[in-house]
Description:
Mean pLDDT: 89
Shape: elongated
Amino acid sequence: MAKIKFSKDVDALLIELSDKPIDYAEESGQLIVHFTKAGEPVLLEILDARDFLLNSLSSVVKGTEVTLPE
């Protein structure tokens, strides 16, 4: 089951998808995805989480699509 944590001191949202060991990570803008050796996603990190969440909620209300800034 996924675990979600917010790290206030660094303004990051951490979404743990599994407890498998992390082998590597890939970063795209404010999103970092950690993978196992087999390429399965284990952990998602969303940086500048407050802005992301506010923009996401605003988009839900407006019915528009959310994009992560590069």
